[in-house]
């Protein structure tokens, strides 16, 4: 049985759907995530890139030398992340999901970069940098 993941932007102009079990359900505290989302942290899940379809073309920009991010060109909602060295994967923002409660994060990454006033919830693994670093 395949899992269907769906979501979209705030204004409704752009929707996405992905089939398959997600992995890397995480909250990232890195400076790039914070700066591009205008938020203290960003929640993500990973799906196979080929299994993810957008109803309209998001705008993509290079957020670092190794990755690009997508957002809705109409309302600016942050939607996705693609790393150059992981061509088969795409990360989707947890907050843009139709049902974010369905996919709670399993860990926190880049906690060495978290803002001092962000409290980490007990019980989830916290990685100082990327998972496995």
Describe it.
By secondary structure, the protein is mainly beta. It is 5% helix and 38% strand. The chain has one helix at 31-37; strands spanning 4-8, 15-19, 23-28, 42-48, 52-54, 59-64, 67-71, 78-83, 89-93, 107-109. The protein is globular, with a radius of gyration of 14 Å. The model has no long low-confidence stretch (mean pLDDT 95).
Largest sheet, if any? 7 strands, mixed
Task: Report the principal-axis shape.
Answer: globular
Radius of gyration: 14 Å
Query: What spatial order of strands do you see in the largest sheet?
Result: 6-7-8-9-4-3-10
SSE blueprint and pairings:
Layout lengths: L3 E5 L6 E5 L3 E6 L2 H7 L4 E7 L3 E3 L4 E6 L2 E5 L6 E6 L5 E5 L13 E3 L24
Parallel strand pairs: 3-10
Antiparallel strand pairs: 1-2, 2-5, 3-4, 4-9, 6-7, 7-8, 8-9
Summary, kept brief:
By secondary structure, the protein is mainly β. Helix content is 5%, strand content 38%.
């Amino acid at each position: 049985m395949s899992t269907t993941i769906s979501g979209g932007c705030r204004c409704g102009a752009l929707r996405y759907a992905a089939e398959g079990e997600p992995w890397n359900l995480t909250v990232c505290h890195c400076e790039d995530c914070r700066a591009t989302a205008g938020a203290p942290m960003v929640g993500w899940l990973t799906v196979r890139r080929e299994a993810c379809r957008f109803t309209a073309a998001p705008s993509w920009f290079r957020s670092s030398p190794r990755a690009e991010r997508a957002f809705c060109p109409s309302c600016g909602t942050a939607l996705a992340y693609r790393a150059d060295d992981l061509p088969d994967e795409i990360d989707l923002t947890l907050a843009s999901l139709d049902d974010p409660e369905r996919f709670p994060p399993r860990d926190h990454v880049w906690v060495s970069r978290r803002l001092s006033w962000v409290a980490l919830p007990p019980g989830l693994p916290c990685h100082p940098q990327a998972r496995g670093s």
